[in-house]
Amino acid sequence: MPSTTEFAATSDGVAFYRAYDRVLDKWPVAVESTDLESEYGITRVNTCGHPDSPSLILLPGAGATSTVWFANAGALAARYRVHAVDLMGDAGRSRAVGTPVRTVDDLLSWFDSVIRGLGLDTYALAGHSYSAMIALAHTLRRPERVSTLALLDPNSCFTGMRAHYLARATPLLLRPTEDRQRGLLRWETRGRAVDGDWLDLLARGSAHFPSAKVVVPKRPRPSELAALQTDTTVILAGGSRVHDSRRLADSINGTYPRISVITVNEASHHTLPMSPRREVDAALGVALTGLADG
């Protein structure tokens, strides 16, 4: 498997980065792209919004890249200085050219380096899917830094994933191909519309981007969640096949003092955060500011 630098020079790499740029071009606001150096490599951050606005960090689902926030960037940039991050070791423009991320401590240390590189003291934080696990683990470790937290259809933060979802996803994990990635999305979304350019980016990244070990934070203990100091909103996809959203909502509501739940009924796990845009924008508005977006 080539390094990220070598991958960029291959025909698959050229096609992947062209697809990345096509999706980034969908952002309805001006975007500044920055490369932050750390011992783990170079992290790409795509930033928009007024420099004097409160800071918001966005973390994408695995393979989705930071570009996935194109549908929400306009509404979020109206209130925040938005920093969308490409995960280290995952598909995107971050380059794992330093110390490998092998442990949860490495993963959280890498994210700390991003915070330092951005020069932030406090910030709102939102993460989708796998990145919800990173965002929650970071918040539990650095509660004084995170002003508000939004977890979009989180994997394994409160409960495990459904066995039938894992059975569908396992062939893709074992031998990723573009067709397998597209097939999983088609099944999980139940045929809901997904942006074609983003799906092309996801499929190309899954099949061709240099793979790295996926480091998975442990599910927090109930006592840790009960002691959470940060106002947190779990935004569930009502049509998610990753878990039973209604059962998960029932298990959270009234159990943890600082955690509330919003369910976006028309969303599936893999259509978040892109669609349905208005409903997701409104949920993020409530989660991050306590205000509904119009």
Protein described:
With 294 residues, the chain is an alpha/beta fold. It has one domain (4-289): Alpha/Beta hydrolase fold, catalytic domain (Rossmann fold). The chain contains eleven helices and eight strands. It has helices at residues 4-8, 11-24, 73-77, 104-118, 130-141, 163-174, 178-188, 196-208, 222-226, 245-252, 277-289, and strands spanning 32-38, 41-48, 55-59, 81-85, 123-128, 146-152, 231-237, 259-264. The protein has an eight-stranded mixed sheet with strand order 1-2-4-3-5-6-7-8, with helices on both faces. Helix 3 (73-77) links the parallel strand 3 and strand 4 (81-85). Helix 2 packs antiparallel against helix 8 (196-208), helix 6 runs antiparallel to helix 7 and helix 7 packs across helix 8. The longest helix is centred in the middle third of the chain and has 15 residues, at 104-118. It is globular. The protein starts with a helix and ends in a 5-residue tail after the last helix.
Give the tags:
294 residues, alpha/beta, Rossmann fold, globular
Short description:
It contains eleven helices and eight strands. The chain has 294 residues and is of the alpha/beta class. It has one domain: Rossmann fold (3-Layer(aba) Sandwich), CATH 3.40.50.1820.
